[in-house]
Amino acid sequence: MLKLFIISSNYMFFLFAVIACSSDSPIGNDVYQPFVFSKLQLSKKDNKGNSMWKITSPEARYELGNRLIRAINVEATIFNQSIPTYNIYAQSANILNDGELILLEGGLKINKINGNDHTLTSARGVWNTADEHMELDIKPTLLNSEVLIKSEEVIINHRDKTVLLKGASLVTNNPTTNSKENTGRFKLLLNNPSWNYDTGYFKALGPISGVRVLESLDQYQRISGQSIFGNTNKSLLGIRSCKVYQKNEYIESKRCLWNWNDETLTFSGGAKLRRNSSKLLIDRTKIEAELTEQGVLEFD
After folding, report:
1. From CA 91, how far away is CA 93, in angstroms rounded?
2. Sorting pLDDT into bands at 50, 70 and 90, what band is 93?
3. How would you write the chain as a 3-class SS string?
4. For position 84, what pLDDT does the model report?
């Protein structure tokens, strides 16, 4: 069996050849014929010797003249200081310029590991390894233990450890794991959400609009706001210029902060609570609330 090593800059290829494409052309043209290999291993390290990424495939075709590798059933790993951060799976990949640019297609799945775990999916992804970012542009989604987000385009920046979901985005319950009774079914519309998966900080532009259905009570809640911010590491979500409607009650404030660990909410900055049944208006600097087991906001 022939083992071929090609070293270019900090990239290293391991190509194990089983079949070279046959041709009746003169020997002088053989360099342009693609070769089929039984196994591909391609990796890169930084100047300090830390692993940056690696990609493997059980079968690949290498076009030497075009510096192009076509691979199937691709698996890859992205590292941060040699620690695995993302595992990647795709049905096929076109690897250009010895790995500087990688086009991933078919059933693309990107699993974040080792903290703030989540999964990104798309039909296609363009991975720019030199700039350490990846663009997902065909029906991309982000899924974690709590929510599912659908967006127009997703950009993962490994250098900054951020995920940007471009355009109008729809946030809903995770359909597979969310079983908390007080969560209810919800839909939230927002724009250009971004998240730092290291610090946990996230934000999104407005207008924000959403609805949550409490099926056990045959009720619903509506929420609107100017923008969203928060931190997944601290279980905090905030909404600016917040308005919330629920049965017989309406509250508005300049800011609302929700701690989803203890299910408490704080409405601050000219908070106003109106109860339709009694026509009572409560006007305070700050109003506290809790989510009951049924998911209803209960104000102090």
Report:
1. 7
2. very high
3. CEEEEEEECCEEEEEEEEEECCCCCCHHHHHHCCEEEEEEEEEEECCCCCEEEEEEECEEEEECCCCEEEEEEEEEEEEECCEEEEEEEEEEEEEEHHHCEEEEEEEEEEEECCCCCEEEEEEEEEEECCCCEEEECCCCEEECCCEEEECCEEEEECCCCEEEEECEEEEEECCCCCCCCCCCEEEEEEEEEEEECCCCEEEEEEEEEEEEEEHHHCEEEEEEEEEEEEECCCCEEEEEEEEEEECCEEEEEEEEEEECCCCEEEEEEEEEEEECCCCEEEEEEEEEEEECCCCCEEEC
4. 94
- Radius of gyration of the chain from its Cα atoms, rounded to whole angstroms: 25
Mean pLDDT, residues 75-101 taken together: 94
- The Cα angle at residue 92 between residues 174 and 41, in degrees rounded to 5: 105
Taking residues 144-165, report their average pLDDT: 93
Q: What percent of the chain has pLDDT over 90?
A: 62
Asked if 257 contacts 238 with a C-beta cutoff of 8 angstroms, the reply is yes
pLDDT at 219 > cutoff 60: yes
- Domain positions in the chain are 1-130
Highest CATH level, class, for 1-130:
mainly beta
pLDDT band, very low/low/confident/very high, at 5 (cuts 50, 70, 90): very low
pLDDT tens by residue, 188-212 = 999 999 999 999 999 999 899 999 8
